[in-house]
Amino acid sequence: MGCFCSKNTRHTPGYEEPTVLAAETPFTVSEVEALYELFKKLSSSIIDDGLIHKEEFQLALFKNRNKRNLFADRIFDLFDIKRNGVIEFGEFVRSLGVFHPNAPEADKIGFAFRLYDLRHTGYIEREELKEMVLALLQESDLILSDDIVEVIVDKTFNEADTKGDGRIDQEEWKEFVSKNPSLIKNMTLPYLKDITLAFPSFVVSAEVEDLE
Amino acid sequence: AAPVTMNAFELISTSQGLNLSSLFEK
C-alpha cells in the first residue's frame, strides 16, 4: 500500500493523530478528521500558523475579530488547556468533545461550572453571577435597573446556594442543573453529529487507511 | 416583570459568546 499521502501531508504544530483523539473523546476517527478541516480553516483565518488565536476565535464567533465578550473569553480560556494563549488542534478536539451530543452529561455540567467560576476559586460567587448578568445585558443592549438585576441575581442565588454559605459549589451546581436542565442546553452542539458532512476530509482519511 | 422571574443562569446561557454553532458556519 502506498504512503505518498502521509509523506506529503504537513501538519500544524500541536497536531495529534485522529486515532489518539478519537480514543479519548466521543468522536470517531472520521469525525476528528473532519474537525481537522474545520480547525485548519479557523486557525488560518488571520495568522496562518495552525493555531487558533483569540482574534480568530472572535472572528469565527462574531464575524468580527475585535469583538470582546466575557463569555467568549471564558470559552477560549477553557479550550486553551495549556494556557499558552492559543488553541492547538488536540485542545480544540478534546474541548469540543464536551459539546458532542453523546458526551457524558456530567462533563457538560462540569464544563459549565468552570465556565462560570470566573476567578477559578472552585465556587460560583454572587459577584461573579452579577458580573455575568451585567455582561449579558450589555451584549444584548438590554437595559435593566440595578435593583432588578439584584433581584434576578438574589433569586437565582437563593435557589442554587442551598447550603446558604454565599457561594455555589459543584455539588449545588449539579443539583441546580438537575432541576433546570435547560441550563446546559448550550453545552450540546448538534452540528458535531454531522461534522463529517460539513467538513469532508478525503486526503486525511486516505492517510489513516495507510497507517492501518 | 418577566426578567425578574428569569433564572440568571438561563439569561447568561443565551450569550452569543457561548453559542459555538457559529464556528461551523461556512
Provide a descriptive summary of the structure in words.
Chain A has 12 helices and 4 strands; from the N terminus they run αααβααβααβααβααα. Chain A has helices at residues 4-8, 18-24, 29-43, 54-62, 70-79, 89-97, 105-116, 126-139, 146-160, 170-179, 195-198, 202-211, and strands at 52-53, 86-87, 124-125, 167-168. In chain A, helix 7 (105-116) packs across helix 10. With 26 residues, chain B is mainly alpha-helical. Chain B has helices at 2-5, 8-12. Helices cover 35% and strands 0% of the residues of chain B. The interface between A and B is medium-sized, with 44 and 23 residues.
The tally of beta strands of chain A, per DSSP, is 4
**Average pLDDT figure of chain B:** 84
Kindly report the spatial arrangement of strands forming the biggest sheet of chain A. 1-2
Order of helices and strands of chain B: HH
- Structure classification of chain B: mainly alpha
Please estimate the helix content of chain A: 55-70%
Secondary structure elements and their pairing?
The complex is a heterodimer of chains A (212) and B (26).
Chain A: H1 4-8, H2 18-24, H3 29-43, E1 52-53, H4 54-62, H5 70-79, E2 86-87, H6 89-97, H7 105-116, E3 124-125, H8 126-139, H9 146-160, E4 167-168, H10 170-179, H11 195-198, H12 202-211
Antiparallel strand pairs in A: 1-2, 3-4
Chain B: H1 2-5, H2 8-12
Defining key terms:
heterodimer, A: 212 residues, mainly alpha, two-stranded antiparallel sheet, 12 helices, disordered N terminus, B: 26 residues, 2 helices, 35% helix
Q: TL;DR of this structure?
A:
The complex is a heterodimer of chains A (212) and B (26). With 212 residues, chain A is mainly α.
